[in-house]
Design a protein that fits this description.
alpha/beta; Arc Repressor Mutant, subunit A; 2 domains; five-stranded parallel beta sheet; four-stranded antiparallel beta sheet; 8 helices; 20% strand; elongated
């Protein structure tokens, strides 16, 4: 992550018209934009660090977007990734999200939507960084579950739990506020950055996948609990007698 000053965004996109349009509009938002027009150049720049966000096309000459995403996520430092994908590339999009991409846009997309997604990701990362600063030792531990915020690492009873970027962010949002009840719309706004009702199935599917990874009994979840008719909350040890 860039330590200060203007936020830096790397755009890896082989369509120069799209890349230049994205650069123009993000620059107007005060962001410092660097372009790469093929996967090999994009990989080198992405791994060089110092970016606050990477906008990554999946279909690239040279190294493809999936491989760039995989290489970025194999490193200890964390840089958010917004994927750009064609409608026909549904399986690749799913793989990209599982590899750790933070969000995606399907081509053709509106520049206005792209700018909104970029702002949402940068806001969320800034809020997550602040949360990390507010938590003693940068970790949350409860009932055998440990979240190490700066390393984006989760351990359950001493073993590492592999989470996608969004699953991790969702877990942190819950665990940092035990006992607080969230509606699906609130979770969309806080974790994804957009609170539209037609995206609420996204919350359900992510919670189901997260529970499958951390809950011993899905019928009676210990950590992420359903509040019927309202939403979800995280286990609060202060209410245990």
């Amino acid at each position: 992550m860039n330590g200060g000053g203007s936020r830096r965004v790397l755009v890896v996109e082989d369509d120069r018209d799209i890349a230049n349009l994205v650069e123009l509009h993000l620059s107007e938002e005060g962001l410092q934009v660097t372009l790469a027009h093929d996967g090999s150049e994009g990989l080198v720049k992405a791994l060089s660090g110092g970016y606050d966000l990477v906008i990554l096309d999946l279909m690239l000459p040279g190294t493809d977007g999936i491989e760039i995403c995989r290489r970025m996520r194999s490193r200890p430092d964390y840089t958010p990734i917004l994927m750009l994908t064609a409608k026909s590339a549904e399986p690749d999009r799913v793989v990209g999200l599982e590899m750790g991409a933070d969000d995606y846009l399907t081509k053709p997309f509106s520049v206005r939507e792209l700018v909104a997604r970029v702002k949402a990701i940068l806001r969320r990362v800034a809020a997550m960084t602040k949360s990390s600063d507010d938590v003693p030792e940068g970790r949350i531990s409860v009932k055998g579950l440990t979240i190490i915020l700066d390393k984006r690492r989760v351990e359950l009873e001493g073993r590492v739990v592999e989470l996608t970027a969004k699953e991790f962010d969702l877990l942190v949002q819950f665990a940092a506020h035990p006992g607080r009840v969230y509606t699906r719309s609130e979770l969309l706004d806080l974790v994804w950055g957009y609170g539209q009702d037609n995206y609420q199935h996204t919350v359900n599917s992510h919670i189901n996948r997260l529970r499958a990874k951390i809950e011993a009994d899905l019928a009676e979840p210990r950590y992420i609990q359903t509040v019927w008719g309202v939403g979800y909350k995280f286990y609060d040890p202060s209410y245990e007698h």
